[in-house]
């Protein structure tokens, strides 16, 4: 890096290069680029590298803080047990085909986290009223349509009244926008982090964000958006969770239709930038009503961790409740039949 370059001398050199008559235009441009780079680097301060020992000493006090205390629990015990919850600085992508329950899943964990931490839910797909209806339904265990249409009987109204205090205590802010630019989105996120101490930002969904920088290339645009979301999580030390659509290649191939990383739509940059990528998969949706062991797949939801920079790649099984409003622990049905030997005498007295 050049440290003693004189800006005035660089400007004089630029003037000389531009006045050359017998020099090819391409050569002129190359000289101009080099001079501009020299000017740019001369204005920058030297950045001192840090020895690993210095870094260790700087962060030594962190050893007294349990790493688990930094984790943000999602409220889904199976996920938290397997992956430790969400972490500051993480960019997490939740992928799935339509009808897998991405928006429902996001609203559920957003409501769970908002009971303790400040949360921003940025929706480009659903209105704030629809999101609130889903959150109310998940807390009250009432169908979404009942709440939206106001058709509640006395018993259901009591259930709704019982969770009103819980709803009022949620530290959840919802912003619904259409085709919001990346610049405006970043400014909004920074504002909420600085003013309200937001810890987690949910984006539903990534492909609906836009960037003025790459209007003519959708792949470059998504790559830029993905990188910006990652930088946002790292720079603000928050967790950013974004849903992502998957390509139709999932339906076009055979087998069990479980998604893989290459199914992420429009850009491989999402796979590269994300710290975690997990997919929502409902085997019942594709007609697989039983698993290989003959167990029922009714309302089963699999969380398939396809990329995890800080842990294992595992599958977590959840169950969607009757009204498709909440995600509850999935319990295997025990089909093993055993007879207590002490009761064998009872069978001898049964007439056949």
Q: H/E element string? A: HHHHEHEHHHHEHEHEHHEEEEH
Largest sheet: 9 strands, mixed
What would you call the structural class?
A: alpha/beta
Strand portion: 5-15%
Oligomer: single chain
Strand order of the largest sheet: 3-2-4-5-1-6-7-8-9
What is the CATH topology descriptor of the largest domain?
A: Rossmann fold
State the domain count.
2
- CATH level-4 homologous superfamily of the largest domain: P-loop containing nucleotide triphosphate hydrolases
Search tags:
352 residues; alpha/beta; 2 domains; 9-stranded mixed beta sheet; 40% helix; elongated
Description:
The structure is a single chain. The protein is of the alpha/beta class. It contains 14 helices and nine strands. The chain has helices at residues 7-19, 25-42, 52-58, 77-83, 102-114, 128-140, 144-149, 154-162, 164-169, 182-196, 218-236, 249-252, 269-273, 344-348; strands at residues 91-96, 119-123, 172-176, 200-204, 239-245, 276-281, 300-308, 315-320, 327-329. A nine-stranded mixed β-sheet has the order 3-2-4-5-1-6-7-8-9. Strand 8 and strand 9 form a beta hairpin. The longest helix has 19 residues, at 218-236.
Give a quick precis of the structure.
The protein is α/β, with parallel strands linked by helices.
Give the secondary structure arrangement, pairings included:
Layout: H1 7-19, H2 25-42, H3 52-58, H4 77-83, E1 91-96, H5 102-114, E2 119-123, H6 128-140, H7 144-149, H8 154-162, H9 164-169, E3 172-176, H10 182-196, E4 200-204, H11 218-236, E5 239-245, H12 249-252, H13 269-273, E6 276-281, E7 300-308, E8 315-320, E9 327-329, H14 344-348
Parallel strand pairs: 1-5, 1-6, 2-3, 2-4, 4-5
Antiparallel strand pairs: 6-7, 7-8, 8-9
Helix pairs in contact: 1-2, 5-6, 10-11
